[in-house]
TrEMBL record:
Pfam families: 2OG-FeII_Oxy (PF03171), DIOX_N (PF14226). The lineage of its organism: Bacteria, Pseudomonadati, Pseudomonadota, Alphaproteobacteria, Rhodospirillales. PANTHER family: 2-OXOGLUTARATE (2OG) AND FE(II)-DEPENDENT OXYGENASE SUPERFAMILY PROTEIN-RELATED. One of its GO terms (biological process) is ethylene biosynthetic process. One of its GO terms (molecular function) is metal ion binding. This is 2-oxoglutarate-dependent ethylene/succinate-forming enzyme. Pathway: Alkene biosynthesis; ethylene biosynthesis via 2-oxoglutarate. PROSITE patterns: FE2OG_OXY. It comes from Nitrospirillum amazonense. It catalyses: 2-oxoglutarate + O2 + 2 H(+) = ethene + 3 CO2 + H2O; L-arginine + 2-oxoglutarate + O2 = guanidine + L-glutamate 5-semialdehyde + succinate + CO2. Its cofactor is Fe(2+). The keyword Signal does not apply. Transmembrane segments: none annotated. Its EC number is 1.13.12.19, 1.14.20.7.
Length: 336
């Protein structure tokens, strides 16, 4: 799994952002424009996916109130006493809810200094994949006495479902395949939502210490909402780390492993990490878009006219189950 692959230059300091490197793209013309406008936006997205695998997206149509709503609830949940957070703790056989950080750990390049609250879409049981029912068919877990938390999470999940299906069409157009090429892969997507909470790194922590170590994401793409505290860093192709701070009103979007496989390597699933040195608590909300769990992801045949496939076919359920079983056996080591 790519989360465990690290190289020595992961610890180099990150330099400041340049929008030329992480472009800010306006999605509004894709949502409401004609075919030419849609192609133009898709081409901008494809360019960013080839160069660095990350971009900012404004004009995405998700109301700011929906984003603010989930951040408000994340703040409320992670501000609760540990005993209250613990009532919603994820367990290996029901892997939804709160995932704590390790209690005590030395500050090193393997430090994991963040907490999560993990949720999924709730779909009817999938008869084509009973094998993984435990992982995918359980309901979400909710904290006691926080009805607004459930409401804000469900609103956000619904908004992400609609938005991610649109974005998928832009990826398809950008790849030069039919715009609806992926539609059939996202009927009951095995996507995951996480609320992440990152305490500040101690001021005296060595440069090599991060909250979340360098990794790539497993699915096709991730839609990340950042609030106002930065800390996300992205690795450029030349190995230099650059900062990807929050841009108000825009999502930070990145290509994950499965989109890299579909595109036969044209789109880059890139390394990123989190280091919160901003002097404040940090919250982020990544939505990991995943296909239906019985989908087999392989380089698209349309893209192989004159190229050999660089990746083997992988079944979504098997790939995610491998990842989640590592998580649930060893929840403290998620990103190590
Ligand atoms: O919090 C962030 O900025 C990034 C989170 C992330 O990379 C992840 O959860 O996989
Ligand atoms: Fe990530």
């Amino acid at each position: 799994m790519s989360r465990s692959e690290r190289s020595a230059d992961d610890i180099a300091a990150a330099s400041a952002i340049s929008l030329a490197e992480l472009p800010l793209i306006d999605f509004a013309p894709f949502l409401s424009g004609d075919a030419a406008a849609r192609r133009r936006v898709a081409a901008e997205i494809a360019h960013a996916c080839e160069e660095i695998g990350f971009f900012y997206l404004a004009g995405h149509g998700v109301p700011q109130a929906t984003v603010d709503g989930i951040f408000g609830q994340a703040d409320a949940f992670f501000s609760r006493d540990k005993a209250d957070r613990r009532t919603a703790m994820a367990t290996p056989d029901w892997y939804r809810g709160w995932i704590p950080a390790p209690e005590a750990q030395p500050l090193s390049r393997n430090t994991r200094m963040f907490e999560q609250y993990r949720l999924q879409h709730e779909w009817p049981a999938n008869p084509r994949d009973m094998q993984h029912a435990d992982i995918f068919d359980k309901p979400n877990r909710w904290p006691d006495d926080m009805p607004a938390f459930k409401q804000a999470s469900e609103d956000y999940l619904a908004a992400m479902l609609t938005f991610s299906r649109e974005l998928l069409r832009a990826f398809a157009l950008g790849l030069g395949v039919a715009e609806d090429r992926f539609d059939d892969c996202f009927h009951q997507p095995a996507s995951q939502l996480s609320m992440n909470y990152y305490p500040q790194l101690p001021m005296d922590a060595h440069d090599e210490v991060s909250n979340m170590v360098a990794h790539t994401d497993e699915g096709p793409f991730t839609v990340l909402a950042q609030q106002d505290v930065g800390g996300l860093e992205v690795k450029r192709r030349d190995g230099v780390w650059i900062q990807a701070p929050p841009v108000r009103g825009a999502f930070t979007i990145n290509v994950g492993d499965m989109m890299m496989w579909w595109s036969n390597g044209r789109f880059l699933s890139n390394y990123h990490r989190v280091r919160n040195r901003d002097g404040a608590r940090r919250f982020s909300v990544p939505y990991f878009a995943n296909p239906d769990r019985e989908v087999v992801v392989a380089p698209l045949p349309e893209l192989l006219a004159s190229a050999e496939p660089k990746y083997k076919p992988v079944r979504v359920a098997d790939h995610l189950a491998r990842f989640y079983s590592t998580l649930s056996k060893n929840p403290h080591d998620i990103y190590n």
